[in-house]
Amino acid sequence: MYRRHFLTALGGASLAWPRAVAALADRLAGGGAADDEPFWDEVRTHFLIPDDRIYLNNGTLGPSPRVVLDAVMEHQERVAATFPPGVAWDDVKRAVSDIVGGDPDGFVFPRNTTEAMTFAANGIDLLPGDDIVTTDHEHIGGIEPWKAAAQKHRATITVASLPAPAPDRDALLDAVWGAVRADTRAVVVSHMTFTTGTVLPIRALSDRCSSAGILLVVDGAHPPGMLSLDVDEIGGEMYASSPHKWMLAPQGTGLLYLSPAWRERLHPTLASGGWDDLSLGAHRLNHMGTIDESRPVGLLAAADYLAAIGMERIEARVRYLRGYLEEGLRSIDGLSVVTPDAEEMKGGLVSFSIDGVESSALQRHLSRAARVRTRVIAEYEYGWMRLSTHIYNSPAQIDRAVELIGEAARNGIPAE
Ligand SMILES: Cc1ncc(COP(=O)(O)O)c(C=O)c1O
Asked: Could you tell me the fold of the domain covering 89-303?
């Protein structure tokens, strides 16, 4: 739901970017079905990606639209010229909560998922002998902070092996829960894996963890800005994310959402004045010294930009494009998709391998032949190729990528 709450709260008339977002919202008020190409063609004009590039790697970093970059620059110029009084945190929290749900009071704003996970792992008071259950589909940014904390506190890590492609949610739940033991202190898993784009059954896992007194910490680097969601409904005590991915916020904008109890309990990794004032709740953890304020301002602009289009429209378009891409990929002989079949178990990512074709060679070929940007999942030696679809992509771009991938599967990769 698009709201204009920021216009007054940010001093309205003196800022250009809120009016620019409002103008976009007005232009985009009608249409916007998942296959409404004229509508999405217009959305594509909000981005700086040149026409001769096909960016299919939003899973690594989302390109900010022009209006977000303008908000960042406008704030930096104001700081340099007139030293305005800080960030309107309440506006940032409300705008973020409009996109990811949750209570605005529960948000902390680190620089990325890695930092959010570091705050979580360092803040929970791990004890020697505690065990942390995780999976073999976690990103370094989600799990290394836990490995470092475990080493420091002489805790252990247990890695559950997930099926890929996962046949159903129960198989995922059983795999994670099967690794839980009497000494399990925390379960740390992705909401959506970066490897295959698989959605884990976090709600069911959260119910089991709560009844066993185990902390559930979720690496939510991907779903915010990709899927309509509500962090409260998802479950878990802490949810870490990187709005510079699917929320299209500027680089270096992170999120950590805390359940009510942890807003008072989490020990700060970065402490400044007020860190021990529990009446501040989660906000005491936002006291981090001097920060680049243009990041939360850019995050606010990005959240308002997404709201102007509408998360339901965005999710439908992301899924439509991924479905179109996946259909093309699945029609290629020798290509195996490792992302689950069921729509509710995936979103805007699809991963695959091709018999006899190395993904890194395919990646170089796609980049050379048509400036297609992709991501190879070399982690855990999987060797898959991952593609992402977001609102600035088009069916024509996907046709071109699928055509090149199909040729490579049939004829091999031409010599460099
Ligand atoms: C699932 C997951 N977690 C964590 C990260 C790390 O994100 P950041 O570099 O923003 O900390 C990524 C980055 O790709 C990711 O995909």
From this structure: Aspartate Aminotransferase; domain 2 (3.40.640)
Q: Is any atom of ligand 1 closer than 6 Å to the C-beta of 113?
A: yes
* Cβ of residue 28 lying under 6 Å from some atom of ligand 1: no
Shortest-distance Cα residue to atom 10 of ligand 1: 112
* pLDDT band per the 50, 70, 90 thresholds, residue 86: confident
Ligand 1, atom 7, residue with closest C-alpha: 113
Query: Is this prediction's pTM over 0.85?
Result: yes
For the segment 126-142, what is each residue's pLDDT rounded down to a tens digit? 999 999 999 999 999 99
User: Does residue 253's CB lie within 6 angstroms of at least one atom of ligand 1?
Assistant: no
Q: Which atom of ligand 1 is nearest to the CA of 192?
A: 1
How confident is the model at residue 13, as a pLDDT?
Answer: 46
Q: Is residue 290 over pLDDT 50?
A: yes
- Choose between 1 and 311: higher pLDDT: 311
The amino acid occupying position 346 is K
Side chain identity at 35, as an amino acid letter? D
Note the CATH number of domain 312-411: 3.90.1150.10
pLDDT of residue 4: 56
User: Fold match between 89-303 and 312-411?
Assistant: no
Q: Ligand 1: distance of its center to the CA of 242 in Å?
A: 7
Handedness of CA 215, 265, 122, 283 (dihedral sign): positive
Parse the chain into domains and list their residue ranges: 89-303, 312-411
pLDDT digits (tens, 9 = 90+) for 303-326: 999 999 999 999 999 999 999 999
Query: Three-class SS of residue 190?
Result: strand
Query: Quick check: 246 pLDDT over 70?
Result: yes
Q: Is the CB of 374 under 6 A from ligand 1?
A: no
Residue nearest to atom 4 of ligand 1 (CA): 141
Question: Ligand 1: distance of its center to the CA of 413 in Å?
Answer: 30
60 Cβ inside 6 Å of ligand 1: yes
The helix/strand/coil state of 46 is: coil
240-243 long-range contacts (CB < 8 A, ≥24 apart) are: 240/113, 240/116, 240/117, 240/120, 240/142, 241/100, 241/113, 241/116, 242/112, 242/113, 242/141, 243/96, 243/299, 243/302, 243/303
The structure tokens 């996970």 sit at: 117
